[in-house]
Design goal:
- The chain is mainly alpha-helical.
- Among the domains are: about 70 residues, Tetratricopeptide repeat domain (Serine Threonine Protein Phosphatase 5, Tetratricopeptide repeat, Alpha Horseshoe); about 130 residues, no CATH class.
- Helices cover about 60% and strands about 5% of the residues.
- It is built from 16 helices and five strands.
- A five-stranded mixed sheet has the order 1-2-3-5-4.
- Helix 10 crosses helix 13.
- The N terminus is likely disordered.
């Protein structure tokens, strides 16, 4: 854990002590105050002379601002151009280059104070290049999760840009909340988002624009695992005593048999502990990446908060980034093996839902982690991945239609109409997708 503050220990998150901010990873470079008031005055004069429809003129003014050290004004100009014309290549390239050099400015005391007031004593606040992390976990676990979020950010932008999408750089840091206790996590989900979440390791709150997680080693499965370990340990203790008693009685045959059973039990408990820690960790990693991808999609312009999207599109995009191995490249350019295998198994068994139903479904019933839910998720990934690999230009067109819907889609039949207009007959898409995965 890097030095977090001017003190040796981290401060508790408190509105009265926000001058002391814990930092995980690299501190974002703050945008300096304007040191050239003359340049700022000239910028305003030049801006008044540019017609509203002269997008190239605004891009040129943005370049001039960068030369004068007015990075904040340049950022605003490029984003305004892209709101008028999302396909303006020069504005997008200039904005990306600017963001990579200047990064996000330091967070305002007002935002930090407002965030602090939402959480009780015992929470800490951390600031990185792209995230504000609120947590009551160990500093070590929060550090690991924060590094993962930073990596997901890099993979998301890299993969989506390589695929021809144009994710907009973040305008401000994203908020992520990390709970150590499962009960605190579920209470937060219910009170703040009206979600009854008992099995998911994390979720993205569209309402509050926050990714929320808990340390899965404190979850409900932990009790079952602890009981299992206690049973195995009692068995080991009993075998050890019986083997010693047999040896003391010179009953070598019984002693050897009990020692053999003892060795097997010790190997079993060692394997069970390792397997539990591995499976819990892998599940937590995949969930964290999935929810982080949701948050990035809704804050980069790939999706927009306040609009309505079909289930397969929203979840398929997030699942495209799922992985349990963050040491290698991952994202939509690669296949999600877990979801693919689940899809193929369901397809072979004839358990897939009709594509005509999937494409217009907006959400699933919150009725627990059933096989039907798992299959529907896998099928959503399969559809999104197939369209991404085989119909990418049409998928970009469909994304644009979803993001420009007016009024907001309320009738699920509208999703079916938009799908057919973009990709063609549903039955034909279904046949092509099944053939693609049979390969």
């Amino acid at each position: 854990m890097p030095n977090a503050s001017p003190h040796n220990t981290k401060p508790r998150l408190s509105p009265t002590r926000l001058a002391i901010v814990a930092v995980i990873g690299i501190i974002a470079i703050a945008d300096p105050a304007h040191a050239n008031p003359e340049a700022l005055a000239e910028y305003r004069q030049r801006l008044r002379q540019i017609p509203n429809n002269d997008l190239d003129g605004r891009v040129n003014l943005g370049r001039w601002c960068e030369q004068q050290g007015l990075s904040r004004e340049a950022d605003v100009l490029y984003r305004l151009v892209l709101r008028s014309d999302p396909n303006h290549r020069q504005a997008y390239d200039q904005l990306l280059a600017l963001v990579q050099r200047a990064k996000l400015p330091a967070e305002s005391p007002h935002r930090m104070d407002a965030l602090a007031r939402k959480f009780p004593d015992g929470f800490y606040l951390a600031q990185t290049d792209h995230y504000l992390i609120v947590y009551d976990t160990s500093h070590f676990w929060a550090d690991l999760r924060t590094k993962m979020l930073q990596q997901v950010h890099e993979q998301f932008y890299q993969q989506m840009r390589r695929a021809g999408f144009r994710p907009m750089p973040l305008e401000r840091r994203l908020v992520c909340v990390l709970f150590n206790d499962h009960a605190d996590y579920t209470n937060h989900a219910l009170q703040n988002d009206g979600k009854q979440i008992t099995w998911a390791d994390g979720y993205f709150s569209v309402r509050h624009n926050q990714a929320v997680f808990y340390n899965s080693h404190t979850g409900p499965d932990q009790n079952a695992h602890r009981n299992r370990m206690d049973q195995l340990q009692n068995k080991i203790d009993g075998l050890r005593l019986r083997a010693k008693d047999a040896a003391d009685r010179q009953d070598q045959q019984t002693a050897r048999r009990l020692k053999s059973q003892l060795a097997r039990a010790e190997r079993e408990i060692k394997h069970s502990r390792r397997h539990y820690l591995r499976q819990t960790g892998l599940s937590n990693i995949a969930t964290a990446i999935h929810e982080a991808a949701h948050q990035l999609a809704f804050n980069s312009g790939i999706q927009k908060r306040g609009l309505s999207y079909p289930f397969w599109f929203t979840e398929g995009l997030a699942m495209a980034f799922e992985t349990t191995n963050t040491s290698i490249s991952y994202g939509p350019l690669h296949a999600n093996r877990h979801r693919r295998d689940r899809f193929l198994k369901a397809q072979a068994a004839g358990h897939l839902i009709p594509l005509t139903k999937l494409i217009k479904t907006r959400s699933l019933a919150n009725d627990a982690k059933s096989d039907r839910v798992e299959i529907t998720y896998a099928q959503a990934w399969a559809l999104w991945h197939f369209l991404f690999k085989e119909r990418r230009e049409q998928l970009r067109e469909f994304t644009h239609k979803l993001n420009t819907q007016f009024p907001v889609v309320q009738d699920e039949q509208k999703f079916e109409q938009m799908f057919i207009e973009t990709f063609g007959a549903i039955n034909a898409v279904d046949r092509q997708m099944r053939a693609y995965y049979r390969k």
